[in-house]
Amino acid sequence: MMLKKLSIAVAIAALSISAQAQTATPFYVGADVGSTTIDSLSGDKTSYGAFAGYKFNQNFAAEVGYRHLFKVNVGPVSADVTQASISALGIIPVSKEFQVFGRLGYNNNKVSTSVAGYNISANESGALYGVGVQYQFTANVGARLEFQKPASDTKNYSVGVTYAF
């Protein structure tokens, strides 16, 4: 009889902890840091970004984001690449705390180049896709790992934190 009561108490405690890990509200913001790889450049470049989203239900969210993909200097030439995006996220909850998501969206990559005092910029827009995982530590705070493909020759891997309010 005592073992049965103890099992029920453990089950109730586990359920209450899991319930706390769900997102507090549908609105969230986040920031991340990562690494960008471009086929024509050697080495990985540091990236960082911010995003905001709205979770319509446990399986669907929409996000807008801004990311500094990389900056490179080659002799007198300096190039700075940024990304602005809007995406839909399809979410598969594995547990109340852990989710896997896929991203499909549209992004605009802006290249700003400086050569011998002349500034040139160009934009390239197109499809954005990615996959990732997210873990909710509390109802408000989560962490995510993600892979994004912002252009045909560009890959970005990032780790970030989310905050629901």
What does this structure look like?
With 165 residues, the chain is mainly β. Helices cover 12% and strands 70% of the residues. The chain is built from 1 helix and 8 strands; from the N terminus they run H-E-E-E-E-E-E-E-E. The protein has one helix spanning 2-20; strands spanning 27-38, 45-57, 60-74, 77-93, 98-115, 118-136, 141-151, 154-164. It has an 8-stranded antiparallel barrel. The longest helix is centred in the first third of the chain and has 19 residues, at 2-20. It starts with a helix and ends with a strand. Residues 13-21 have low confidence and may be disordered.
Structural class: mainly beta
* Distance linking N and C termini: 43 Å
Largest sheet: 8 strands, antiparallel, barrel
In the sheet with the most strands, the strands line up as 1-2-3-4-5-6-7-8
Radius of gyration, CA atoms, in whole angstroms: 20 Å
The quaternary state of the protein chains shown equals: single chain
Proportion of strand residues: over 45%
Shape: elongated
Uncertain regions spanning at least 5 consecutive residues: 13-21
Number of H/I helices: 1
- Give the averaged pLDDT, no decimals: 88
Secondary structure: number of strands = 8
Work out the helicity level: 10-25%
N-to-C order of helices and strands: HEEEEEEEE
Summed up:
With 165 residues, the chain is mainly beta.
